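Supplementary Methods, section 5.1.

A reviewer requested that the exact input to the structure prediction be made available. We therefore reproduce it here, unchanged from the version used in the analyses.
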Amino acid sequence: MSAGMNLEEGKLSKIELLESAPHFSFLNFGDKNVLVVYMTIEEFLPGDPLIHEGEIQDKTHFIFEGKAEVVKASAEGERVSIARVGRGDIVGEAALQPNLIQSTVVVRALDKTKTLCLPRNAFEEMMIDTPQTAFKLLFDVIRLLRRRLNETSNKFADHVGDIIVDDSQQDEQ
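The structure derived from this sequence is encoded token-by-token as follows.
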């Protein structure tokens, strides 16, 4: 199947995916029934981009199978892998915010990857039709972003600590 094509999955299979996916454990069954109306299932083959750099982010992907790599251009223009994501991770979450934002990264499937996809326009409809479910989803995305920021801060602190140790060892010589 080609990249990004919606699988012809019924509502029941989407509910089963929501039930099994760690992203949605905070939602009750009624909220999950609401959410499946707005989501699609997308499948990506190895090498296929889930998110293209420079394009407006208009979809949020909740990964439930497979792995993907997040790649960013360095200041020198070199492509650098900055993260690997998989089951339980979210990419493209900027699509859920009010302002349209261009992606600054490429997210590319490393192996066969399946996502529950929430298009921006569907999320906007959900905010009007069922705001309680939309806000629950937003709060969970904020929780995941906070976790991601903490992990990044810890890695940065470890890296800076290593640099300081290296500098002090060179000063002793």
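Residues 1-9 have pLDDT under 50 and may be disordered. These observations are discussed further in the main text.
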